[in-house]
Amino acid sequence: MTEQNELVTSAFGYSLIRDELLPELLGNHTNEILYWAGKNLARKHPCQNEGELIHFFEKADWGTLQLTKQKGEEICLELSGPLLESRLKQNEALHFTLEAGFLAEQFAMMKQCQTEAIQHRLKRNAVQFTLKWDAKDPYGLPSRKARS
Questions:
Q1: CATH number of the 9-147 domain
Q2: Dihedral (Cα; 32, 34, 39, 41), 10-degree rounding
């Protein structure tokens, strides 16, 4: 890793930009724009598997991501960690649509089919993401992976 990658982000500085400045700039469209931005970031930083995805979240200081449930065409992931906990203490109404969009696009690329992510705030200081993907594409054909 380079020296720049090893720098530590302060919770205050991160929260100041992410939770105060961005919503002020983006207004009523904050969640939609951050979801799209997360998808865009995923295309720029593709992960090949869930292990790389977990590592990316830690490296980006988004928190500790772990798989909690997987069934058919749905997966649940939980995000936790000290920075996330600190942010939630400052503002319990936070949304994690940037992370949700990032996860949706990563799984869309891994599964090669349309994927959407929904965030759920857990009672403890964690966020759950539920991802669902289509086994078929919008034209009713099997996913590219299934056709291969």
A1: 3.30.1380.20
A2: 160
**Interhelix angle 30-44/97-111, nearest 10 degrees:** 40
- CA atoms of 55 and 145, how far apart (whole Å): 25
| 61: nearest Cα among 5, 132, 116 | 5
C-alpha span between 41 and 84 (Å, rounded): 19
Residue 75: C-alpha distances to residues 40, 44, 82 (Å): 21, 23, 24
The 10s digit of each residue's pLDDT in 34-63 is 999 999 999 999 999 999 999 999 999 899
- Between 5-9, 27-31, 44-48, 133-137, the lowest mean confidence (pLDDT) is in 5-9
Buried-exposed string 54-69: b where 16+ CB fall within 10 A, e elsewhere: bebbeeeebbebeeee
**Domain boundaries defined on the chain:** 9-147
DSSP state string for 90-127: H-TT---HHHHHHHHHHHHHHHTS-EEEEEEE-SSS-E
